[in-house]
Amino acid sequence: MARLQQIGDRRVGDGQPTYVVAEIGINHNGDLATAARLIDAAVEAGADAVKFQKRTPELCVPAEQRDQMRDTPWGYITYLEYRYKMEFDEAGYRAIEAKCRERGIAWFVSVWDIPSVEFMEAFDPICYKVPSAALTDRELIQSLKATGRPIVLSTGMSTMQQIEQAVKLVGTERLVITHATSTYPCEPEELNLRMITTLRERHPCPIGYSGHEVGLVPTVAAVALGACLVERHITLDRAMWGSDQAASVEPGGFERLVKYIRVVEGALGDGEKRVYPSEMASMRRLRRVAG
């Protein structure tokens, strides 16, 4: 059974090159110049797409957290004020759209609420991402399904029952599911990469991996286990201010990650045993008994 999905101009799934997403998310810290540098870094690393996050702060910030004070690059302000500082308006996203077009890279967003879906529809996105935090938000998922666009469903902080309910709601026709553990950064023993195999056994759609670990090895292992789409946060510097920076990959590391993924893709082969021409000299020299 071939698990394939169309995202933009790319086929994603079994037999296709791994679709590598550089998650810019909120690592731009509300600055368009930083966002542009991150797009450049993703392109130079060989990523297939970049992803941002779109929220309506007054809907996404719980009431009890809105007035909590926080030290930020903009001073000591409330959490709600901080969330507004991190959001780009239409002009900001038009600039992002133009930058991605200039650099020839696809882009899309995670949406956290229905007004954000309505906002992003003006940009004709190639797909939408449902963040792990919104996996149980039936109204948001129904709104995304109504757009008719492909959906990438992240499964961190979720039970199998919750995942199954979300998949049933979305349907698998235009779905990619990504295994994730929503800890930033995540310890290796909690990554549970074999969930990729479990999800592949349960669902006929492409299965991917959204990683929040420190380092590159687990993400490469996820590809070996069958993840056809991988997503990692990208940052200019892990020491930058921001909650996601420590679980992110710097430009040089992201370039190595893409290279490692491509090597693994080539090394996996087709699972059929054969004797390669390069083995013939060794066989003639070393094998003593003909089979």
What are the SSEs and their pairings?
Layout: E1 4-7, E2 10-13, E3 19-25, H1 32-45, E4 49-54, H2 57-60, E5 69-72, E6 75-78, H3 79-85, H4 90-103, E7 106-111, H5 114-120, E8 128-130, H6 138-147, E9 151-154, H7 160-170, E10 175-180, H8 195-202, E11 207-211, H9 217-224, E12 229-233, H10 251-268, H11 280-286
Please provide a written account of the structure.
The chain has 291 residues and is α/β, with parallel strands linked by helices. It has one domain (4-286): TIM Barrel (Alpha-Beta Barrel), CATH 3.20.20.70. The protein is 37% helix and 20% strand. It has helices at residues 32-45, 57-60, 79-85, 90-103, 114-120, 138-147, 160-170, 195-202, 217-224, 251-268, 280-286, and strands at residues 4-7, 10-13, 19-25, 49-54, 69-72, 75-78, 106-111, 128-130, 151-154, 175-180, 207-211, 229-233. The strands form three sheets. The protein has an eight-stranded parallel β-barrel, surrounded by seven helices. Strands 1-2 form a two-stranded antiparallel ribbon. Strands 5-6 form a two-stranded antiparallel sheet. α6 links the parallel β8 (128-130) and β9. α9 (217-224) packs parallel to α10. The longest helix has 18 residues, at 251-268. The relative contact order is 0.15. The mean pLDDT is 96.
Multimerization state: single chain
Overall average residue pLDDT = 96
Compute the CA-based radius of gyration.
21 Å
> How many distinct folded domains?
1
Q: Please provide the count of β strands.
A: 12
Bin the strand percentage: 15-25%
What is the global morphology? globular
N-to-C series of helices and strands: EEEHEHEEHHEHEHEHEHEHEHH
Low-pLDDT windows of residues = none
Instruction: Tell me the name of the CATH class.
Output: Alpha Beta
CATH architecture: Alpha-Beta Barrel
Strand order, largest beta sheet: 3-4-7-8-9-10-11-12
Largest sheet: 8 strands, parallel, barrel
Termini gap: 35 Å
What fold name goes in the CATH topology slot? TIM Barrel
